[in-house]
Amino acid sequence: QVQLQESGPGLVKPSETLSLTCTVSGGSIGSYYWSWIRQPPGKRLEWIGCVYYTGSTNYKPSLKSRVTISVETSKNQFSLRLSSVTAADTAVYYCARGLVGATRDYYFDYWGQGTLVTVSS
Amino acid sequence: SSELTQDPAVSVALGQTVRITCQGDSFRTYYASWYQQKPGQAPVLVMYDKNHRPSGIADRFSGSTSGSTASLTITGAQAEDEADYYCNSRDSSDNPVVFGGGTKLTVL
Q1: What's the pLDDT tens digit per position in A19-58?
Q2: DSSP 3-state assignment of A78?
Q3: Of A61, A94, A105, the CB nearest to B30
């Protein structure tokens, strides 16, 4: 059974960089699109971006200038860095395993439990 | 960019059938996926590629698309189906993943 677990600070100061790591267990990190998805309190899910096991990335256009997602296959981990954070970046951050569907849409079959990151001084 | 629009809330009597809809131009080109999210929990994939159920998802869940509307139907809703449901698909531009605003399903 594939399991994902997020780790990282729960509190980040405004203007600083948010850093999270997702550890994947019970399966290989190969051939999937490892994604970060967030959900501000009471709001909809928002895809941030993904990394393929080869290191190729794809980001949400409106966040692209602030986001870096990387993968470390030897550790079965992938990571998120979001720079210049503001209060609007406060959210539950999920890591998820992504697949490409029949029409090149992405869907997510395994999710971490989520971690709340609060941006506040 | 393409947006996906869902009704904020829907209710259904126990054992009855309910359809949760998601509207967006994306569905004229791309399939929908659906997620169930219960309070304090991560989303769970319940439907992908329009009408494919992951292993372990009850067969009372089904999916369909008509024009610009994707639907998730629960036939014989159970108390445990009470949750928020989110649709997702691909944007027609360079934004590969978009989510709907979610529908809160209440089972009466």
Answers
A1: 999 999 998 888 899 999 999 998 999 999 999 999 999 9
A2: strand
A3: A105
